[in-house]
Amino acid sequence: NNSSQLSSLPLQILLYVNGIYYIFYFLTTLAMIIYKSQVFSYPDDFLAPDLAVLFLMAILEVPRLYLGFKGNLTEAEAPLGLSLGLTVGSVVLCVYLLLWQTYVLWADVLLNAVLLSAYGLESGLKVTAIAAFVS
């Protein structure tokens, strides 16, 4: 048998860790938005977009991770490519929460910097895996 396994173990581990981290990220960011809305004068018309971005990001995260897992394990470039595309959307939303939400605390900077780093590393591994599957 001359078949070789092309799926990426580092990518699989990172997707798993990102899934766990995202749950922590979501709950912590949600708690901080609630905290900020109580402690600071948080205009109502600014609270909704910040919450909407967080929830949209959570909705994107599920297919992003699922397609990443599926594409890597089945060595299929299409789901992995779709996951990569969704990662771009997640990065944009993450940057919004890092730079443009109503109040940005040092904890927001830390949480978003870790998430952006993970997205960057994961994207590099996805591109490498896709290249391996295609060749």
TrEMBL record:
Residues annotated as transmembrane: 13-35, 47-67, 79-98
Subcellular localization(s) per the UniProt record: Cell projection, Cilium; Membrane
Highest taxon of the lineage: Eukaryota
Entries under InterPro entries matching the protein: Uncharacterised_TM-17
Membrane topology: Multi-pass membrane protein
Magnesium in keyword set: no
Keywords: Cell projection, Membrane, Transmembrane, Transmembrane helix
Coiled coil spans: none
Pfam families: Transmemb_17
Record-given protein name: TMM80 protein
Species in which this protein is naturally found: Vidua chalybeata (Village indigobird)
